[in-house]
Amino acid sequence: MTRFFVAGEPQDSESKQVTEVRNPATGEVVDTVPKGTVNDIRRAIDVAAVALKKWSQLAPSKRGAILLSAGRLILEQEKELATLLTKEQGKPIRESILEIRRFVHTLDHYGGMAKSLRTAAVVLDNGRHGLVLRKPIGVCGAIVPWNFPVSLMGNKLGPALLAGNTVVVKPAGTTPLTDIRCIELIDKAIQAGGGPKGVINVVTGPGSVVGEELLVNPVVRKIGFTGATDTGRRVMQSAAKDFKHVTLELGGSDPMIVCEDADLDRAVSAASVGRFFNCGQACLAVKRLYLVDKIADGFIEKLVEKAKRLRIGNGLKPDTIMGPLHTADQRKEVEEQVDDAVKRGAKVLCGGERPKGGDYDKGFYLMPTLVTGVDPESRILKEEVFGPALPIVRVKNLEEAIEQANNSIFGLGSSVWTRDVNKAMIAAERIESGYTWINSAQIIYDELPFGGVKQSGLGKEHGEEAIEHYTESKSVVIATETQSEASAGE
Asked: Residue 397 in contact with residue 58, Cβ under 8 Å?
């Protein structure tokens, strides 16, 4: 059993109950973790509150150095961590390695920012001086999803720890193992760097128990959440009771628009990777493909060929390109969304069924699926599709593509493929999303702020903006004794 981690030590739950973690590719039990209780999570929160006093007083440069050191420790165990991640999540080993490196890159990014953090200063009336200080918020709760459990945890830990906060992590119930191991390594770096025990803690258990306590406990002053939009709405409602700060990175239905002058080979490759990476289980996956009529036939032919060539299998096999979906329920949901489209008149160009025989019968596999002729009211266009199924829509021109792209409750990411700079800028300005890629694969950069609009989220992760979301500003006015006397009575 992998125990959760509180106050610098592995811990058992008072409940003595455990949760099984299963491999999506085989159905086999990988390990078990404790099923935490309210008292377990309260203890972690209280420990974090005590650690806050010392951690927040460390110089930012020391906190930054600790983050850099933590990254080195994690890289030393990259292979072991990536293997564990593939076993519990299902993604191909090459994608797990990328995720571990992505996590380290985020720690490095915020560690490197430590010496560039500045306060603002201004000269006021009557010779007084004003300062704007940024102070850590306090104890932060990080609620992490299962699709990218390590890298999305890093989006919260990097800015939170650099800013001087302490953190309690609630990992997804199906993917807690790699998170716990990474947190142990970060804690090792913290203690080696002179920080206290309890800066970073993790408790496993049901969201209705462990997650809910993070939301309602008044000691927790900030929640960083990544997950489904409906769950994010409940997080916001619960956090509002104590006016907690919240950052919500929620669902998306990202459109990809391909114009008639695009580099089609590059765009086809981007559409395939953008939809089928991590078996399509990504908030930023390409989920709606809009093709201008002039190039649609050729584009579709190339994309179908590419989708059919994707090697599906156990993520631990080095030649696997796409692994299984994470759970049986997740696969069923995608199948129902495809079936709904077909009932409304859509045509399945490839995929749409489960591969059969041998190892395929043990896991939650689904063939890469492309669908065309989709009714605008189909679930596959209206909802977020968290799996390897992509609807293709023909449009007359860029204007129509933008109009249809914006016809969504979501606004997370988007991409446009064109050689015309005017079209590119029109799309960037008019598409309703928090991020737009132009002739580029949908990759997030730590240097740029990331967050959605509409029902795709609230607040920003990544970039300098993330630091602002993990601090509170405080205004200070300074006057000399002479200045104070001269202004008496004002």
From this structure: no
Q: Which residues belong to the active site?
A: 249, 283
Neighbours of 95 (CB within 10 A): 22
- Gap between the Cα atoms of 488 and 490, Å rounded: 6
254-438 topology per CATH: Aldehyde Dehydrogenase; Chain A, domain 2 (3.40.309)
For the record, the structure tokens of 29 come out as: 């039990």
Phi/psi of residue 31, each to 5°?
A: -170, 180
* Residue written as token pair 């391909």: 258
Let me know: does 175 contact 216? Beta carbons within 8 Å. Answer: no
The superfamily in CATH containing domain 4-250+452-475 is Aldehyde Dehydrogenase; Chain A, domain 1 (3.40.605.10)
Contact by Cβ (8 Å): 120, 132: yes
Q: Give DSSP secondary structure letters for 163-219.
A: TT-EEEEE--TTS-HHHHHHHHHHHHHHHHTTPPTTSEEE--S-IIIIIHHHHH-TT
How far is 338 from 435, CA to CA, in rounded Å? 27
Burial 458-481 (b: 16+ CB within 10 A, else e): bbbbbbeebbbbbbeeeeeeeeee
pLDDT in tens, 56-100: 999 999 999 999 999 999 999 999 999 999 999 999 999 999 999
Contacts of 422 (CB under 8 A, 6+ apart): none
AA letter at 105? H
Q: Which tens digit of pLDDT belongs to each residue from 353-389?
A: 999 999 899 999 999 999 999 999 999 999 999 999 9
| One-character DSSP codes across 396-412 | SSHHHHHHHHTSSS--S
For the chain, the structural domain boundaries read: 4-250+452-475, 254-438
> Nearest-CA neighbor of 414 among 384, 440, 396?
440
How much of the chain is helix, strand and coil, in % rounded to 5?
Answer: 45, 20, 35
Inter-CA distances, 423 with 259, 401, 435, Å: 9, 12, 16
The CA angle 71-76-81, to the nearest 5 degrees, is 90
Could you give the CA distance from residue 14 to residue 31 in angstroms, rounded to a whole number? Answer: 19
